[in-house]
Design brief:
The protein is an alpha+beta fold and about 80 residues long. It is built from two helices and five strands. Strands 1, 2, 3, 4 and 5 form a five-stranded antiparallel sheet that branches.
């Protein structure tokens, strides 16, 4: 993976949508529903709006392979 490709996941909160979707620490999050992610702003934009409450495909690079996991974003409290 090249520089700027994805976001490294450092921690996953137990019981969170990321945890329920199978994301793991050290995964490199590459995209959401086929849209590339290069920074946290991209991720926030892609996990809000009409995606709240519906399954989205999250592409991750894990142990040398690209995998897709299903995550259901939730609205965060203010």
């Amino acid at each position: 993976m090249g520089e700027g490709a994805g976001i490294e996941i450092l921690t996953v909160v137990a019981g969170s949508p990321a945890d329920r979707g199978g994301l793991r620490p050290e995964d490199l999050l590459l995209g959401v529903d086929g849209n590339g992610v290069t920074d946290v702003g991209d991720l926030q934009r892609l996990m809000t709006g009409d995606r709240i409450g519906r399954r989205v495909g999250v592409e991750v690079f894990r142990r040398g392979t690209v995998q897709t996991v299903a995550v259901v974003p939730v609205e965060l409290p203010d």
